[in-house]
């Protein structure tokens, strides 16, 4: 991972606007070792894909960001970072509960409820990635959600138990870096196959909404670029980038 065998830096904060922002600011001042981590007890402006906000009670959940230098990955395969992060959260949660899936592109669901969101920010150098900041908000011990988010849930709400957040984080990091080493070994198809098998609504026809309205389709494929291919009952296939289509989730 680190070509200079540098020890990753772990930064713990009581509060920050966003762990992604903080990590990017620190790495802009001086290059941090790969695998460096920022963990916060509270975020005042936690965010998800395309500016979505993230509600989290102070000291109850896991909010952290990891710094990577995946310069071996071409820019058009950057979605692999999202895939390994999603799979790592899913497999971590499966140590404690079942019915965990990945809702394209990288929300983590327990049944029809969202337990984790993430924001992955990639910087490019030419045709390859230079660095990636993987930001994750995972609901662990929160008992009540007060925002207007439609379907949040925490591990505590699922099981009725309280968890040591450090134990959950350590489990995630072990799984995540195992997947990262698979990337280094160019085992991309293994990762893509695991991601397809993990998808929310991965089998069967479900309702989706795009700019033209509601329609019924099944997931046909996920392209290496991350684009979603949906197939309608009449065989028509439609291709979507992030935020161009919404999965209809039961309320």
Automatic annotation (TrEMBL):
EC category name: ligase
Keywords assigned by UniProt, alphabetized: Ligase
Organism superkingdom: Bacteria
GO molecular function, one term: biotin--[biotin carboxyl-carrier protein] ligase activity
CDD domains: BPL (cd16442)
Record bears the keyword Ligase: yes
Keyword Metal-binding applies: no
Segments forming domain BPL/LPL catalytic: 5-184
Enzyme Commission number(s) of this protein: 6.3.4.15
GO cellular component: cytoplasm
Protein name: Biotin--[acetyl-CoA-carboxylase] ligase
Organism: Parabacteroides merdae
């Amino acid at each position: 991972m680190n070509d200079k065998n540098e020890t990753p830096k772990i930064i713990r904060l009581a509060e920050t606007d966003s762990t992604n922002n903080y990590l990017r600011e620190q790495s802009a001042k001086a290059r941090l070792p790969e695998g460096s981590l920022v963990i916060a007890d509270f975020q005042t402006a936690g965010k998800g894909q395309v500016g979505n906000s993230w509600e989290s009670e102070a000291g109850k959940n896991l909010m952290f960001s990891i710094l990577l230098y995946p310069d071996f990955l071409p820019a058009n395969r950057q979605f692999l970072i999202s895939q390994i992060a999603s799979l790592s959260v899913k497999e971590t949660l499966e140590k404690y509960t079942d019915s965990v899936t990945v809702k394209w592109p990288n929300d983590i669901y327990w049944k029809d409820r969202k337990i984790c969101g993430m924001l992955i920010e990639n910087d490019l150098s030419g045709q390859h990635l230079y660095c990636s900041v993987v930001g994750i908000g995972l609901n662990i011990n929160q008992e009540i959600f007060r925002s207007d988010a439609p379907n949040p849930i925490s591990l505590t709400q699922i099981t009725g138990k309280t968890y040591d957040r450090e134990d959950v984080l350590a489990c995630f990091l072990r799984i995540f870096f195992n997947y990262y080493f698979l990337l280094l070994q160019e085992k991309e198809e293994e990762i893509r196959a695991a991601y397809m098998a993990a998808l929310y609504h991965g089998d069967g026809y479900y309702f989706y909404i795009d700019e033209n309205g509601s329609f019924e389709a099944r997931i046909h494929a996920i392209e290496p670029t991350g684009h979603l291919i949906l197939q309608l009952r009449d065989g028509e296939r439609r291709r979507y980038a992030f935020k161009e289509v919404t999965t209809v989730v039961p309320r």
